[in-house]
């Protein structure tokens, strides 16, 4: 079943076209990433899907309903990770999660969620004493306490140190393993590559590429560059059949000094895709 279906979505702020006609399909159980630079229209898109912002044009279905008109029962099936959710800073982590659990008809077990989000050691700590990364994990705890079918994560790891990001990715993978659909926005390529089954690259309100991280921008098909050094010095050849080339070069068991085979990185392709639109 399709969790999210978007056709021709448009949003304009004054005379600025923030979202310029995008199509999206996210299947149930998928981790889907909207990847794009600052100002590409990611947050606007997610807020429309959450029902927090009105669209100017296009069709949107989220869990089968139009977010513009869907009611409370629909909302309870979504997990929205809002940075403002943890304002009750005088409460402890457990108290905060327990408090939010009361809003939902089918909440997860409070202790399970605290464990899942890696907050066991901080369960009795006041929210105001948490680090930025721990607070973000608490935001996620509050986003998933209601057993949502679909979770929206808007730039979840911005400002995290590398270890906190790894831990957070692990949490997202655990959620997805339970069958939760996840739509995340990010401007980190490695995050999209590590987590998402499919990625849409957004630039200036349009989707400029979509597919698996490996296939984005035709990367899987791109020519490889084979480099090696021989008696003439450093050599370089571009080829669509690098295995054959290396076989030919090394015929008779000849060792090739400094041999490397590279394809354009996701970063090369991405910068190419979004470069013209900034
Ligand atoms: N409420 C608003 N009023 C006017 N312009 C807005 C409003 N919200 C967003 N914009 C503009 O619309 C464009 C898209 O913004 P949006 O926040 O959706 O981008 P984004 O991809 O999420 O960027 P970031 O990575 O910086 O969060 C930007 O040019 C932004 O300045």
TrEMBL record:
Please give, as recorded in its UniProt entry, the membrane topology of this protein: Peripheral membrane protein
Localisation: Cell membrane
Gene Ontology BP, a term: response to antibiotic
GO CC aspect terms: plasma membrane
Keywords in alphabetical order: Antibiotic resistance, ATP-binding, Cell membrane, Membrane, Nucleotide-binding, Translocase, Transport
Matching PROSITE patterns = ABC_TRANSPORTER_1, ABC_TRANSPORTER_2
* InterPro entries given in the database record: AAA+_ATPase (IPR003593), ABC_transporter-like_ATP-bd (IPR003439), ABC_transporter-like_CS (IPR017871), ABC_transporter_ATP-binding (IPR050763), P-loop_NTPase (IPR027417)
Question: Where mainly found?
Answer: membrane
**One MF term in GO for this entry?**
ATP binding
Protein name as it appears in the record: ABC-2 type transport system ATP-binding protein
- The residue ranges of the ABC transporter domain are 4-229
